[in-house]
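Researcher: Here's the sequence for the chain we discussed earlier.
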Amino acid sequence: MTSTSGPPADMRLQRSSRDAAGTARLLRDWLAGALPAGSDFTLNLLSGIDANGMSSETLVLDATWREGGEPRVGRYVARVVPAAEDFPVFPRYELREQYDVMRLVGELTDVPVPAVGLIEPTGDVLGTPFFLMDRVEGVIPPDVLPYNFGDSWLHDADPDQQRRLQDSSVAVLAGLHAIPDATSTFGFLDPGRHGHEGTTLLERDLARTRHWYDYAAAEIGDSSLARRALAWLEANVPGTDPADDVLCWGDARIGNVIYRGFEPVAVLDWEMACLGPRELDVSWMVFAHRVFESIAHALELPGMPDFLREEDVVATYEQLTGARLGDLRWYHVYNGLQWCIVFMRTGARQIHFGEIERPDDVDGLMHCGPLVSQLLDEVGA
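Model: Thanks. This is the structure I predict for it:
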């Protein structure tokens, strides 16, 4: 793996086996049917997105039509549930839940989320459900190659600009966590609705994650690292106060944000939205950067060691919210486990598409593995 010869083969991932021309035709026919006859509707499917994100298919499209005799232009992104044969990351995709979370966040907060539009929940059009949201222009910190490897707009920004992006990203978490009565407003996110048991939301979140691990291991095989993390997590679940549970973004990292002027203009990727302690999101934002930093360190790259440091993120978050965060170590291990499971599923997908050979050891698929192992050593697991 090098930083000069393009992304490593196992970091650029094929997400779908859909035929692009056929998909464009199906979308065109479906959208045209939602407009009055004679609207002169046209659709241009620009691309899918494969630089960031691993879970859903994302299609970028432009549409033109006439309404009341006036020309109209729509610029959209379609979020599409992956087909079962394309090795989806998650065992179940609740697209309506994702849609409703984005809609409610847009209604209840100043957090910038793209406006959601039409939804096709049946799968009758593309084979799986999808919805449309407005396309927002801006820049995203890249995953491939990671933004901290160098030669990226964020890496090359000055320290004040980097800090502005950091603090404004933490402010997104503060805004989400300030939604009142989150457990009732977003009750459809409770894992107990799908049979995952536990006295607290955190216990039910962990039960769901164990189910997710079993789903991944059934295809790719057991991971000794993930099993080690699961055993420690289940033996050390922190006590939580239900009154403190909030809406968590779930995949709370800067690679899921569109920025302009180092400020968020669109918060994306809500598949992992959940209810639980606020530490889940704060930890994820810190942990995601630490994963990229650990890879940069292994490649002897300078990285961005002064960016998204835990002490800075926590201090900013507590200042913005007035809340006092607990010890993040349990949450780092928990989020590390989830990253491991993601890599198990995306690794299985790469094997399916012939991008890599099946490894002798599942743990070899995990770019986060050294960091998770280090965390487990630190907590004595």
